[in-house]
């Protein structure tokens, strides 16, 4: 039985058809170059339609449909509800900006490269849309695998370099390990079907299984592991700092802004809708992993000297904050505190939107800097605000937003997250009511480190003097790139200045997941949490900042009786001031590197006392990479060597071993 397709489904279907045609048309770019300027702007048009469809689904009733595609008797089921609608809005608006940036990026690439990006990019957009609207395990896994393969091919766009091939292999390896865990989770749920009942793969049927607590806990752990691999949670985060530097910058923006959120979406869908009421240990597990991920991401980003690796670890930090809020919501739900669970989920979903917009802005801006200078190393940049003033202004909005500076959007979601943690005193267990609010202190530390990182990032790239002579030839980004940056900057401003409207958009999704409304009173002036509790009003904050600034200026002018005079800045008696006297990225991160050495794997290079040409250096690696992945890789390599040594050189002997193994297994079978 088919449900009539509404306006939302019509927009989504139109976008899917358009993107499929654009993927096919991209194959002909090398032979018909004049179609190249149309590919990505049309892709942006489809993304805008998806965003509108998601916006309509946020406040409308859930709409389901059944597609004839799929295996016989196993069609694809789709469903648009508030949760999928919210992520479609996130996906659609971010993709509009990325597609605009790709329009300018395409003009800088050779036609065969532009063709490969055009094909895989639009296939990825199709698969992401299907992930967000899939309503059964079968279609969800098909879309998930298509998303993994197409994103892998985009990561290895520059496949001629060994770094790209290694990063792509690591990405697809962790992706498939996570996918196997998701398949196992769905398989266990489907196996709970009573004997004599027809098998059904829809999420609605899986929700009706009501497995016992042991089975539900096992499914949750598998789902958390699988979706955590996509989201970049510790210790499965190592693919992010490897994949982002080698991927094209617009693709890095899509990976960080949207693909990581696919893991968050899957975790929310399974943990809150498909599975029964969570157990308390579910929330504690997610909360602990989220806080650890946030802390490790913040510390690692603070000591990076590569722009894209710095932003990759910053994404790890923000995903950790989102996951911590989700863990707190699971804990509230386990004890029946549905309204507080909705509050924590609103904070998490708000930060999902925020991170998509400001991280997309920063990655696209980094791509413009990389194109203008050819450098990713912070130590070779500087003073670009004079060469790229428009890009610098838009990037400033992104850096202030991700640093949590009010009244931009990053502050709002972090403020709501802090208030959610402080509400943990309502938990019935004393050790939870006392211990979890301490997590607010850790979040405050992470927020402070994020501000520290963004001061380093923006200051070294755009301020000061150029550290290399070649930076004098840097040029401003093109109009399409600036259009994408401008759209994301406007979204960062809108989400910061209009929290009441954003919370009103998010509230239906939180209500769907928890069955309750959050204790947030929204108004045009801001948002207030609960009764007699702190709130946030951006208009009041703006007025307060303006009054303080004007008062300070007037007081300084009143107390200063002398006119301003100019003088040479004191430079410690050194006769010359050059770019090499500026603070470096390594020097800026040295305090963090020294204080938090226990969390980082630092290898220092120090000269001997009698060294005539002393050289200093340090390399900071991920401790999980050094202590977990490298030993595991060496172990598997040893096993492969032993296996190859034992392999017979004649096919007849190999077949004899296979036959003997089959005979032994048949003999042992009951």
N-to-C terminal Cα separation, in Å?
Answer: 45 Å
Mean pLDDT: 85
Number of strands: 7
**Shape label:** globular
Oligomeric status: single chain
What is the number of helices? 23
Rg, please? 27 Å
Characterization of the model:
- It is a single chain.
- By secondary structure, the protein is mainly alpha-helical.
- The chain has helices at 7-26, 36-58, 82-107, 111-133, 137-155, 162-190, 203-207, 213-231, 239-246, 249-274, 280-302, 307-334, 338-373, 389-402, 409-422, 430-435, 439-462, 479-497, 499-514, 538-559, 585-595, 623-646, 651-668, and strands spanning 63-71, 74-80, 520-523, 526-529, 535-536, 600-605, 617-622.
- Strand 4 and strand 5 (535-536) form a beta hairpin.
- The protein starts with 6 loop residues before the first helix and ends with a helix.
- Residues 1-5 have low confidence and may be disordered.
